[in-house]
């Protein structure tokens, strides 16, 4: 689904990108970043299409989604000094004289 079609489905559902992202537990910026690709991942497209259809038929989808809960994903790459992506990094030993190997060839 193109991003424009996705926005049309959200409009039918009565949702903005921000409201959609909040409803499904995503960062609004992550959703709007798909505009640069021009395409929306299938799982988000399916959700938007289903929400639009439910809204057009008068089904209160907010109640059903709230039953799922609001457990958000843990952010990836929570970098701290000495860590990359949350994993402890080993200190690398640099070997001196690496440039000297070219003279041995």
TrEMBL record:
Start and end residues of each stretch annotated as Disordered: 70-105
Q: Which domain of life is it from?
A: Bacteria
What this protein is called in its record is XRE family transcriptional regulator
Lineage of the species this protein comes from = Bacteria, Pseudomonadati, Pseudomonadota, Betaproteobacteria, Rhodocyclales
